[in-house]
Hints:
Number of strands: 5
Oligomer: single chain
Amino acid sequence: MATVQDINRRIRSIRNTRKITKAMELVASARLRRAQARIEAMRPYADRMLELTAGVARASTSVRGIPLLERRDVETLAILALTGDRGLAGAFNGQILRRAFALERQQRSEGLDVRWLVSGKKGRSTLAFRRYEAAAAWTGFSDRPAYTDAQAIAHRLTELYTGGDVDRVVVVYNRFVSPLVQHVEEQELLPIAEDIFERDREGEEQEVVLQGDFIYEPEPEQILERLVPVYLETELYRALLESAASEQGARMTAMRNASKNAGELIDSLTLQMNRARQAEITQEILEVVAGAEALS
Length: 296
């Protein structure tokens, strides 16, 4: 049976751990607010980019010459998994990797070759543990991604797709709903569907019309060829921001639960320590009484 000193030592240790989890919860909460503000600030830009690209696409006579819109028979699929650089975020990293591996098994069962790309140290280490070779890996910005990070990823994806190394690219990431809820999303990045510019975020048809008459210089096809890569960068940046907010929300929730569990464990150990102290006192009293009886 544990002594009073042993139980007291455990209580002190758990209290120190609870201080850490409370501090991590506060840090994650502050970072979550900043991540949400970045998503809200980015949405008008993304909507305007979609509207602009759709307007130019409507003015174009043909989009078949644009490499990122070219569709071909799929033989090789690239999976881009957006994970975090750190743990202690509940199921944030695990659910992304489970969905990505499930997608890999499904595609391999259909006879497709699968190539991996990953963002985040957790995803990279998991792939290395499973002896998977990643075509590219990016780390160091999962909690605060910049637009240049999205550009770097988009540039590599464009190289693989236009070079014929992959025929389809799917990104798997956590979409932020609330600090308690994050949904795993699978989004096809390449090839970009030609009708994507006629649909809104929820997939419903919408009328995208630029007001006024425009004279395009250079031709709309050339402008669209420049806008499509920017659209790809914007979609990747939005996914990175969603993933960053989801990570902070998951970490805040996980640390809050850890602090709550630590408090409950401290209460339980305190009750156990009091019982052990009472048992020791009772034993000492019995020993004193027995000694007094022996002397008498």
